[in-house]
Specification:
The protein is α+β, with helices and mostly antiparallel strands and 297 residues long. Helices cover 37% and strands 25% of the residues. Strands 3, 4, 7, 8, 9, 10, 11 and 14 form an eight-stranded mixed beta sheet that branches. Strand 5 (140-141) and strand 6 form a beta hairpin.
Length: 297
C-alpha cells in the first residue's frame, strides 16, 4: 500500500513538472520567439522542444523509480521501452571471428556513435549520401549497450536511409545482480553449445526501411522498420552460408510467439516474432594474418 502511494505521488510530481514545462514553453518561450522569428521556425522550435527535450526528460525522470521488468525477448531503449526483438545468436571462437565472418559476408562494421559520426550519419540520411558504416543508436540488453553492430545497405546509394542491421551482445555474466535473470534466461537456452574457447553472441536483427518513422511515445523522428523480423535473421544466416562459414544452425524455442509495438508507429502493424532463436555456429577460427586487419575494442 505504501509503495503504491509513493508511486502515485511520484507520478503526480512528474505530471506537475511536465505541466510547468509545457506552460513555460507555450506562454513564455514561444511568444518571445514569435515576435522575432517566422511562424514556421517557431513551430519547428516548439516541436523540437517537446519531442527531444520535454517528453524524453519526463520519461527519464519517471524511469528513475519505475524500472522496466520484462522477459528478455527484446532489447530496450535507454528509457526502458521495448525496441528490437532478440532473434539470432552466433557461436564463435572469438570476437575477431565474428567480425571477419560478417565482413566477408558483405556486412559493414558500424562506427562508434561519436558526435562526429552522428553528424555524418544525419547528413548521409538527409542527402542520401553513402555511409555504410553509419553508427547505431544505443539499445540495451543485460543492462548494457550493445558490444558490436553490423549493417548492410538496402539501397543502391549505400546510404543509411534504409539498411539491414544487427546489434550483438556478448553473453557474459553481468556484474549487476538485477540483470542476472536475463543472462540466466539466454544462458539456459544456449549452454549446450558452449565449449572450450567458444563465445555466444546474442543478436537483435531488424531492417530500417526509411527515415520517415515517428516514435509514438515522444513524436521524435526515427527510422521506419520492417515488421518481418524473421526475414532479417534469415538474411544473416544465408549470407554466412554463402561464404561457407556456417557449421550448424539450431533453432531454440525462447517462448511463445508474441508481438509488440517497438519504438515506431508502424505502417504494417506491430512487430511479430515467432518465439524462437536461431543459433548459428561458425566454422573454424581466424588466422593470425586476418587478425591484424580487425579493429579492437
Amino acid at each position: 500500500m505504501i509503495r503504491g502511494l509513493l508511486r502515485t505521488l511520484w507520478r503526480l510530481l512528474i505530471l506537475l513538472i511536465g505541466a510547468t514545462l509545457i506552460w513555460f514553453t507555450l506562454f513564455k518561450v514561444l511568444p518571445y520567439a514569435d515576435i522575432r522569428l517566422p511562424v514556421f521556425v517557431v513551430l519547428l522550435l516548439a516541436y523540437a522542444v517537446f519531442a527531444y527535450i520535454i517528453i524524453p526528460t519526463l520519461i527519464r525522470i519517471f524511469r528513475i523509480f519505475d524500472k522496466p521488468n520484462h522477459i528478455p525477448l527484446y532489447v530496450i531503449t535507454p528509457d526502458g521501452w521495448p525496441s528490437d526483438p532478440v532473434n539470432i545468436s552466433i557461436v564463435t571462437s572469438s570476437r575477431e571471428q565474428l567480425i571477419n565472418s560478417m565482413q566477408r559476408a558483405g556486412w559493414y562494421l558500424a562506427d562508434p556513435p561519436t558526435f562526429k559520426n552522428n553528424i555524418r550519419a544525419v547528413y548521409a540520411m538527409l542527402f542520401n549520401r553513402p555511409y555504410p558504416e553509419a553508427p547505431f543508436s544505443q539499445l540495451y540488453l543485460f543492462g548494457r549497450p550493445f558490444d558490436i553492430g553490423f549493417q548492410k545497405p538496402a539501397n543502391e546509394d549505400m546510404s543509411p536511409r534504409s539498411r539491414h542491421h544487427v546489434r550483438f551482445w556478448r553473453l557474459e555474466e553481468p556484474e549487476d545482480a538485477k540483470h542476472f535473470p536475463h543472462f540466466d534466461f539466454w544462458h539456459k537456452k544456449v549452454k549446450h553449445l558452449l565449449g572450450i574457447e567458444k563465445e555466444i553472441w546474442i543478436g537483435a536483427a531488424i531492417k530500417d526501411t526509411s527515415i520517415y518513422g515517428i516514435r509514438w511515445r515522444s513524436g521524435s523522428i526515427t527510422h521506419q522498420v520492417s515488421v518481418d523480423v524473421e526475414a532479417e535473421r534469415d538474411l544473416i544466416i544465408n549470407d554466412l552460408s554463402n561464404i561457407r562459414q556456417v557449421g550448424t544452425v539450431d533453432v531454440v524455442p525462447a517462448g511463445k510467439p508474441f508481438s509488440f509495438r517497438g519504438q515506431t508507429i508502424q505502417r504494417g502493424g506491430p512487430l511479430i516474432c515467432d518465439g524462437t532463436l536461431a543459433v548459428v555456429e561458425l566454422r573454424g577460427r581466424v588466422s593470425s594474418a586476418v587478425l591484424k586487419h580487425i579493429p579492437k575494442k
